[in-house]
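User: Fold both of these, please.

Assistant: Here is the first one.
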Amino acid sequence: DLKGADFSAANLNGANLSRAAAQGAGFAKATLAPVNMPLPNGQPSGRLWPANLADANFQDADFTSANLHRANVLDANFTRAILRDAVLLDVDLSLAKSDGADIAGAIMRR
């Protein structure tokens, strides 16, 4: 249960928050971008592992200026979430519920 938790400015790159109950949580300036997947020898593989936010509840959460580049948001709930100035590059919000979400100033491209 992550309801109301504060992850402001946290590095959550590649994190698995699928099915999380994070209503009202704070993710302002947090980074939920993909991480590079290394080969067994530690060398770069060229593969990226995105943050997984699938089926999570972020209702009323604050993602102001957060980086969600390439995050998996399938069936996530961003109802009334604040996504102002967030980086949403390669994020398909049509796969999530985002009624009343504030995306003013968000950087978006798919």
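And the second sequence with its predicted structure:
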Amino acid sequence: DEAIHHFQNLFQTNILYRTVDTFEGEDVATILEGIIWCTLSSDSYKQAVLKASCLNNEPGATTTATGALSAMIFGIKGVPAKWKHELARVSDIEDLAERMNGAHELMMRTK
């Protein structure tokens, strides 16, 4: 199937062993791989987002999506206070991130 071909790297390799220079394409599959790599290879929200900002593909989209995924994994508490201060509607974002993190934790417990 043509679509599966584009996502082979996600299914056939351990993404954690890849390096930042392997996420240079601007296609959706490469950007998605970069988002997943930044999140899974990091120990914190801040680290994941900073990694995403260094990727050479679509930095705005990659950083935004990495932030969303990382908030779900690490929780909103990991977002630096200075960064939160810059956000509009920060209380709505914090509420959503906490609910997403709770859903992630519940999903992990039921595995």
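DSSP finds seven helices and no strands in the chain.
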